[in-house]
């Protein structure tokens, strides 16, 4: 499979501040911004399609404190800023009627999903999918980048499964398989012409976006997904074709910049 070259992410300034958009790669549609509201202009769901909004959780409190460590699928808490980021993401999604709101079983994602449900004018509930849990870092949890080693991390990102950490650690290949399985279940639950949302994690969103872009899994670690950002993908119910409407959109409404290091 050919490696897709993604364009440099552009920084677009709107009425509310700066916005990160992404991926003019295969199947990616450049986002046009509304000058008044400062959000991506998004057409109605095309005939015969379903839409998924993929939301990454907000900033977390790194369990290593001043010594940022990898935490993966550990159930770490959102920071106060992360909670505000999640509320901003939910506020954006309030303009779209969502059929289902799915989430990872981890508390940082559930918080964001609950904010999305609160913003909706229906009686929807959060649907938990185990498959949307963050990448399990296994024995690397609690270690810094330096302690793991640059070479080991580079080999891991290149999908060298021989360096998959012990203690239940996962490779990107294993992660993507379970994520896509859960995504497909959510798509089955979602009616044609409707939209649903997933609140999950960096690597989970990367897995779904890379699938939509038909990218080799070896390139997954290069995808930019900001904290509490939203990625939008349309799915054709007949052909299975996926179209990325926008990637890593994050409204900047005066919040400080999040810390997003080891994950």
How does this structure look, described?
This protein has about 260 residues and is of the alpha/beta class. Helices cover about 25% and strands about 15% of the residues. The protein is built from 6 helices and 8 strands; from the N terminus they run βββαβαβαααβαββ. The protein has a 6-stranded mixed sheet. It has a two-stranded antiparallel sheet with strand order 1-2. α1 packs parallel to α2 and α5 packs across α6. It is globular and about 50 Å long. The two termini are about 25 Å apart. The N terminus is likely disordered.
Layout of helices and strands, plus pairs?
Layout: E1 11-14, E2 17-20, E3 49-56, H1 80-93, E4 98-103, H2 107-119, E5 126-128, H3 145-148, H4 150-157, H5 172-189, E6 195-200, H6 202-212, E7 230-236, E8 242-249
Parallel strand pairs: 3-6, 4-5, 4-6
Antiparallel strand pairs: 1-2, 3-7, 7-8
Keywords:
single chain, 263 residues, alpha/beta, two-stranded antiparallel sheet, 8 strands, 17% strand, disordered N terminus
Radius of gyration: 17 Å
**Broad structural category:** alpha/beta
List SSEs in N-to-C order: EEEHEHEHHHEHEE
Question: How does the overall form come out from the CA principal axes?
Answer: globular
Question: Can you summarize this structure?
Answer:
The protein has helices at residues 80-93, 107-119, 145-148, 150-157, 172-189, 202-212, and strands at residues 11-14, 17-20, 49-56, 98-103, 126-128, 195-200, 230-236, 242-249. The protein has 263 residues and is of the alpha/beta class. The strands form 2 sheets. It has a 6-stranded mixed β-sheet with strand order 5-4-6-3-7-8. Strands 1-2 form a two-stranded antiparallel ribbon.
């Amino acid at each position: 499979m050919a490696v897709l070259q993604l364009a440099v992410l552009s920084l677009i300034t709107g009425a509310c501040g700066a916005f990160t958009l992404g991926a003019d790669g295969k199947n990616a549609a450049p986002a046009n911004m509304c000058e008044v509201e400062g959000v991506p202009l998004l057409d109605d769901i095309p005939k015969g399609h379903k839409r998924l909004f993929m939301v990454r959780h907000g900033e977390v409190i790194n369990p290593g404190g001043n010594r940022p460590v990898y935490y993966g699928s550990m159930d770490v808490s959102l920071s106060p800023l992360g909670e505000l980021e999640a509320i901003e993401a939910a506020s954006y999604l309030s303009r779209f009627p969502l059929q289902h709101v799915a989430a990872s079983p981890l508390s940082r994602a559930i918080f964001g999903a609950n904010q999305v449900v609160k913003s909706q004018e229906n009686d929807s509930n959060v649907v938990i999918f185990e498959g949307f849990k963050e990448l399990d870092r296994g024995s690397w949890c609690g270690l810094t980048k330096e302690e793991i080693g640059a070479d080991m991390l580079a080999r891991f990102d290149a999908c060298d499964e021989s360096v998959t950490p012990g203690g239940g650690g996962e490779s990107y290949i294993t992660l993507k398989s379970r994520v896509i399985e859960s995504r497909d279940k959510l798509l089955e639950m979602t009616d044609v012409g409707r939209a649903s949302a997933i609140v999950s994690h960096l690597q989970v969103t990367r897995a779904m976006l890379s699938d939509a872009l038909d990218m080799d899994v070896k390139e997954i670690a290069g995808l930019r997904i900001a904290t509490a950002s939203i990625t939008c993908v349309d799915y054709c119910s007949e052909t299975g074709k996926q179209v990325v409407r926008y990637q890593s959109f994050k409204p900047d409404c005066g919040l400080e910049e999040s810390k997003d290091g080891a994950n």
